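Changelog note: in this version the structure field was regenerated for every chain. One regenerated record is shown below for reference.
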Amino acid sequence: MFGTVVNTIAIVIGGFAGTVFNKNLPQRYQSIIFQGIGLFIMALGVSMAIKMECVLISVFSLLLGGLVGEFFKLDKQINKLGEWLKRSLRFKSEKFTAGFVSASLIYCIGAMAILGAIEEGTGNYPAILLTKSVMDGFSSVAFAAALGIGVIFSAVSVAVYQGGITLMVFLFADNIDAAIVNELSAVGGILLIGLGVSILEIKDVKVVNLLPALVFVVLLMLISCK
């Protein structure tokens, strides 16, 4: 779990630095940083999505995942969690929940998070996660400057998500199909595009309700490979 621990610490440190920066930054500068982040997320999502190979599996994963997410109202539940954290810790930031949810999605959805967790789970040196830690640490400064202290708490999501994958691979998986990781990354890219659209206030996309698509990608890929 060393790689995930370092990744978590990097986000916390960068988040604190960005929060301090946020307090001394005029609103107009916060707005332009916010827009820059939205554009960056969309570009990152496109770069991941274009690697898609199994189009039908990705489409059906998004459709099925969206239906499941909407049925369980995942978006509402995660926002309730963010608001509960905000109230419990007595933070007044209006963007606390947005920062927590957005940063959690950004840091957890992506090839480096998945591949890095798998790499460490198979007993190898966590080179990918350590590289991701450096990237996440610097990016969390910018994210926290625009979105506030909620970004820091995304470190919890990273710890649970990446740590969970590492543990499952260590316990159960002998060999992970590269094609599954590729499609996970592609669908994750589509979700990031949706997140970018929301951040830029083009359209309110309920990205959290689409998260079960990542589970359906794995299931459909396993079925199709038989």
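Spot check on this record: Residues 2-53+74-206 form one domain. Residues 99 and 147 are 5 Å apart (CA to CA).
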